[in-house]
Design brief:
The chain is mostly helical. 77% of the residues lie in helices and 1% in strands.
Length: 336
């Protein structure tokens, strides 16, 4: 009888202890849930605040110039005439040049490190890429202004003008500029430096994504006689396409929003030139150059340009998200 009573008391104690533990876990889950929800809402509120500030500040500029503010090329603070077209085109062109140069280089570096480099070389090359990613953008700008731009103007620009300038269709993009020709500051120079800046980011992400491919898949492909290119094209890329797209969009976002390096080497010309070898400007460079001294309608125009940059970035992220969703849906369809 005594043993039965003791067993019952022990069972009750155990049950009470388990109830207390479960209540403690439930309370911890509740705290974690509301804390995570709070931080998520903070992010949304910050985003909403930024959008409201940009939209409210840009209203006077759009009231003064209408939607023609986007397509107006002139930027004349003396006569209070402001247009975003030159900076908008410069932003897109510089980012496009950076992606055209940086994307193949990033893929080549990632493929070399993961598939072709010997073991003793993989770590030094990977570390060098990561160190390049850590270099501040203003250092790239100083290097581009004092070293790369003069070297480009002396050794590369004359060859581009002589070989590509006479060609039809694209020849107009490589004409010798009337202004800034000797200095080398131009949209093309800015795009090349941007490419150098985004390569470490894209290469690091793509390399890390490539390394998650199961070795058995690659070994099986090599076992049936596939070449390195065939393994990369038919095995690695299909397996990692979602992560690769994410890395590419990361580099594109960096190229669109870069400020200091572009400000140093693009020339900051408010007029839109027909040649890539002429000075230009971007939205970020225009904001960096004039925001501190702007007032009145000029300040409103700069805020409106910031809103345009925000919209461009949002469109890029939205397209990347849609592409990732489409790739995920295609992959699920193949599995079924």
């Amino acid at each position: 009888m005594s043993n039965t009573l003791e067993s019952s008391l022990e069972a009750d104690k155990t049950h009470m202890h388990m109830n207390r533990s479960s209540r403690g876990f439930a309370m911890g889950d509740m705290v974690f849930k509301w804390t995570a929800l709070f931080f998520a809402l903070v992010v949304l509120l910050l985003l909403a605040g930024i959008i409201i500030m940009l939209a409210k500040g840009s209203v006077p500029a759009f009231e003064a110039f209408g939607w023609g503010f986007i397509t107006l090329e002139d930027w004349d603070p003396v006569n209070e005439i402001y247009g975003a077209w030159a900076a908008l085109v410069g932003t897109l062109v510089a980012a496009a040049i950076a992606m055209l140069i940086g994307l193949p280089l990033s893929f080549g570096i990632a493929i070399f490190i993961t598939e072709m480099a010997p073991q003793w070389l993989k770590r030094p090359v990977g570390t060098a890429i990561e160190l390049l990613a850590a270099v501040p953008s203003i250092i790239y700008g100083m290097w581009g202004l004092f070293f790369f731009a003069p070297w480009f103007a002396a050794h590369i620009q004359p060859g581009l003008v002589a070989t590509l300038g006479p060609l039809p269709l694209i020849g107009g993009l490589f004409q010798m500029p009337l202004l800034g020709g000797a200095s080398g500051v131009s949209v093309l120079t800015a795009g090349i430096v941007l490419a150098i800046m985004i390569v470490p980011f894209m290469a690091s992400v793509i390399r890390d994504v490539f390394e998650i491919v199961p070795p058995v898949l690659k070994e099986s492909a090599y076992g049936i006689g596939a070449t390195t290119w065939e393994v990369v094209w038919n095995v690695v890329l299909p397996y990692t396409k979602t992560g690769v797209v994410g890395g590419v969009m990361l580099g594109l976002g960096r190229a669109i929003g870069e400020t200091m390096a572009v400000t140093f080497i693009i020339g900051n010309a408010s007029q839109l030139g027909s040649s890539l070898l002429e000075p230009g400007t971007t939205i970020a460079a225009k904001l960096a150059n004039e925001f501190n001294e702007a007032d009145g309608l000029q300040m409103d125009a700069l805020i409106a340009m910031g809103l345009l940059l925000f919209i461009i970035t949002f469109i890029v992220l939205m397209l990347s998200k849609l592409l990732l969703m489409r790739l995920a849906a295609t992959q699920e369809g193949r599995k079924t």
